């Protein structure tokens, strides 16, 4: 097949002084930071849905993206997109891609026909993988787009829909395994409610847990060893999504005894929709040993929905990578660009500019975070702030040696002296790291 992104060759690292917009300024895949290359730390992935399956439509207008495959018949377009995916990933130097079942192949009139379409495309992907280093980071199921999922998938009040969603996940897990996918993601597309007046929340949550348990069992049965990930999101499309945020998901998994089998996939824009920072959600996962992967993007502070923009905020990226490094890295996970170019950025070249912006932002974020971790100034401040728990009564609390009676005795005789939290001093120090780290 002839070149699809003609006129654009492999994107290279040229360094901060470069004025070539089609070059990396900070992402140098082979640069070693803390014993690992940038490529190994960041494990970037292209999101098939935003990059190849989308057309740029919004609530007020039709698709605007210039994409040759969008004007082809569904199956021809699907085959073409396979080529586009690999050519794009190879040129931009992103080592992974991620997909929903419905991004790669169109639905047929029946489930059997849909699965046949998938088989054709999966075999094309498998063939193309033989001549490529690009791998599958994760697969997932789109059990929210088709109108059959109007009331949810595994949380639908209709048991036939529960069964249909199960069949879809079964197939998607099989193809993820076949393509060597390292993880499998569950994002509860419409697993939530619009009104409690028509909702049996207890049954829906029990069913969601039953569904996930069946997925764990089936993965074991077919020998799929990828990491299972749940991606929290508080709202959109439903008013209340059950996988609200990291804390809610971890509590849910523990309630149903599912926590040993899952980690979390944290998306920046979902964190902000939940009223949290990106760093907060990553920190919640880190302290629970459940950080699995990241959907890298950002929202717009003035908009209250999931705008899925390419990440360019250096502060957020640095603090995100600070959490990742402190968590010991992303393991099998990676940084998937769940990001779309704006509707007005309609030319194929914009896909390159978007990914370059995101990759450079996280590369610089990694460099800054590594310096913050190795200098240890923030850690030292935090350790000192909590030092009252390392000796005396604080140590007795931590060691479980005292109860309310002993604490009352201590409180009666103590002269309390607090220390400043020095927030402004620390924020100024963070500015110094952002501005001065080379
Ligand atoms: C939706 C979203 C999804 C998941 C995968 O907001 O983030 O694309 O990442 O289903
Ligand atoms: Co996502």
UniProtKB/TrEMBL annotation:
Signal peptide: none annotated. Pfam families: AP_endonuc_2 (PF01261). Binds 2 magnesium ions per subunit. It comes from the Bacteria. The active site is at 100, 103. Residues 87-277 form the Xylose isomerase-like TIM barrel domain. Its EC number is 5.3.1.5. It is found in: Cytoplasm. GO terms for biological process: D-xylose metabolic process. One of its GO terms (cellular component) is cytoplasm. Mg(2+) 1 binds at residues 231, 267, 295, 338. GO terms for molecular function: magnesium ion binding; xylose isomerase activity. Keywords: Carbohydrate metabolism, Cytoplasm, Isomerase, Magnesium, Metal-binding, Xylose metabolism. Mg(2+) 2 binds at residues 267, 270, 306, 308. Its cofactor is Mg(2+). Homotetramer. NCBIfam families: PRK05474.1, xylose_isom_A. Belongs to the xylose isomerase family. This is Xylose isomerase. It comes from Ruminiclostridium cellobioparum subsp. termitidis CT1112.
